[in-house]
Every structure is written in structure tokens, then in C-alpha cells.
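User: C-alpha cells in, sequence out, please.
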């Protein structure tokens, strides 16, 4: 079995905008993405016609730099800008 990449699993501190969605506790990137998807699904923000698109509400717009809709493939780019 391959050894887990310690850098990949290192806890990251979310920005204030990201903390509004995932909480302020430092988390590994995998957990941040998981919590983002939980929030998106709980609030019905996945586009109904194109499931690869995410519609922004006020909290997500703060993370997604004001974009009204982003591709799920772009989500990691915005997460990277909102963690330390």
C-alpha cells in the first residue's frame, strides 16, 4: 500500500469566507472539498441541468470571487486561494 502524502493531508486554515461554509478549524484539503460538497448538496446549489456546474449563493460567491456559477473542476482553484 502506498504511503499517504503528508503534505496533501496537512491541515489548512480556511479564510473567513471559506470558514463560513466549512468551519474555522484547520482541515486537510480532502475534508475541505468534502464539506464544500455537503454544503452544495444540502442547499441545492448543483445546477439541475448540468450537474458539473455549481450555482453560488452569498457564501459561495465570496469564495468564488463573485462568480454566479462555476464548474466543479474550478472549485479546487478557488479553495487554494482561500486556505493558508
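Assistant: Sequence out:
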Amino acid at each position: 500500500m502506498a504511503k499517504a502524502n503528508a503534505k496533501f493531508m496537512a491541515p489548512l486554515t480556511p479564510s473567513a469566507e471559506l470558514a463560513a461554509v466549512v468551519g474555522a478549524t484547520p482541515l486537510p484539503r480532502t475534508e475541505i472539498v468534502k464539506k464544500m460538497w455537503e454544503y452544495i448538496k444540502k442547499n441545492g446549489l448543483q445546477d439541475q441541468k448540468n450537474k458539473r456546474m455549481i450555482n453560488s449563493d452569498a457564501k459561495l460567491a465570496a469564495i468564488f470571487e463573485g462568480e454566479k456559477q462555476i464548474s466543479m473542476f474550478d472549485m479546487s482553484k478557488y479553495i487554494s486561494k482561500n486556505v493558508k
